[in-house]
Amino acid sequence: MLETLEILLLSLADDDLILGHRHAEWIGLGPILEEDIAFASIGQDEVGHAQAYYQLLTDLGLPTPDEYAFKRPAERFRCAHLVELPNTDYDYAQALMRHFLYDAAEQVRLQALRQSRYEPLAGLAERLLREEKYHWLHARTWVEKLGHSTQEAHLRLKSAYHFLWPYAWLLFEELPQEAAMVEAGWMPPNLELRSRWLELITPILEGIGFDVTPPASEALLPLQGARHGLRSPHFEALLAEMTEVSASEPEAEW
Amino acid sequence: MVTPEEVRQWLQAVRDPEIPHVSVVDMGMIGEIAVEGQKVRVELIPTYAGCPAIKLLQAEIQAVLAGKGLEAEVEVNYRRPWRAEAVTPAGWAGLQRAGFALPKRLSSEPEVLFADVSCPRCSSTAVSLSSPFGPTACRAIFRCHNCGEAFELFKPPV
User: Does residue B18 carry a pLDDT above 90?
Assistant: First the structure.
């Protein structure tokens, strides 16, 4: 069962770690000072959350958080492709829409995991949810504001939404060995989480005039496999940058 | 024989590097303390999981207790949520001295927490939220429309 637990916790941790890294790229480049600080702060939270998930594995005799983050080959990461996407041209609409779709998923995931029968995970989910509520407030406030703002803001947000939609959908791609996780009472099926996520975001997206329909299967097909270790073309450069300092002095104590 | 209560007293010397007005004890970050001979185990409960001060606090707790001849093991517990209810009256007073606005009542909804805030400088309630995120995870930025100053609300996880 340890291997199954590792798959579950790594999928949660890796999503947070990699998106935390992407959010941190906004430091010094946010469109306004408050947003610069917000993305930095949210990113710091996400990296801290990743560390806490890895720690649950460390407690069971598996590698340390630093080893998971900095010494793992690319194919052993389990994050969704949504979080790997680069901040191309520093498009704030896209960063905001990713933050919105992802943090809605976190709300749903963490609410469910509070009832996990894997008790350390239930306790951690309870803690993280209390921090994450601020992320969710931030994301939906800005999406609603900009969605009702100028035509340019609306269109930029909409094009970000269309681009990100299939990636966000696959946050809930079935995990390897998911049946065993559900059987053990560790988590509800991802299909069920996805429908709760849709219930949460649909009124907000429709409220700003966006259609919410499942992505076409031909849009999803080429993006599948992230939870099995298939990395997107963006991941290698991200990992090289993220591990650059630790790799320069592998034996150093941080 | 050293008691857990004595250890707790000694830990009053350990302060959050970002908010030196408040000790880790008054901040409600010290959980269980178990003493066995010269060894002591201290449970440290971070306010926010991503708080970068944790490693430093761990080391300071060990140093303070080493000064008392104790060998301390500090277990950082992320599985237990930190609760603002655990902040002592001295802790709230310290946060106020540090210049923060304090939540008037605790809530599990950020909107409620942010709705009822007064300026720590002029006490005006004509204030607005600039951002739920500030220079550290536990702060939100507000602006006062009466005195014109920006200020920070101490923002516990909800």
Answer: no
User: Exposed, middle or buried by CB within 10 Å (0-12, 13-18, 19+), for A3?
Assistant: exposed
DSSP A159: H
A249, A238, A221, A220: which is closest to A74 by C-alpha? A238
Cβ-Cβ contacts under 8 Å, A35 against chain B: 131
Output the pLDDT for position B1: 85
One-letter amino acid identity for A67? E
How far is Cα A243 from Cα A250, in angstroms, rounded to an integer? 10
The model carries a pTM of: 0.95
Neighbours of B107 (CB within 10 A): 16
Give me B71's structure tokens: 């060998």
B50/A45 touch (CB, cutoff 8 Å), yes or no = yes
The backbone region for A90, taken as left when phi is positive above 0, alpha when psi lies in -120 to 50, beta otherwise, is left
Under 8 Å CB pairs connecting chains A and B tally to 80
A219 touches chain B (CB under 8 A): no
Greatest pairwise CA separation for chain A in angstroms? 54
Chain A residues whose CB is inside 8 A of the B78 CB are 52, 55, 124, 127
pLDDT tens-digit readout, A95-124? 999 999 999 999 999 999 999 999 999 999
How close does chain A come to B35, measured CA to CA in Å?
22
Closest approach of A38 to chain B, Cα-based (Å) = 5
Q: What is the ipTM of this complex?
A: 0.92
Cα–Cα distance measured from residue A160 to residue A49, given in angstroms and rounded to the nearest whole number: 26
Query: B48: which chain A residues are within 8 Å (Cβ-Cβ)?
Result: 45, 48, 131
Q: How is residue A113 written in tokens?
A: 């995991």
Alpha helical stretches, state H, A78-118: 81-84, 92-113
DSSP string covering chain B: ---HHHHHHHGGG-B-SS-TTSBTTTTT-EEEEEEETTEEEEEE--SSTT-TTHHHHHHHHHHHHHTTT-EEEEEE-SSS---GGGS-HHHHHHHHHTT-B--SS--SSHHHHHHS---TTT--S-EEEEES--SSTTEEEEEETTT--EEEEE----
Instruction: State whether A55 and B50 contact (CB < 8 Å).
Output: no
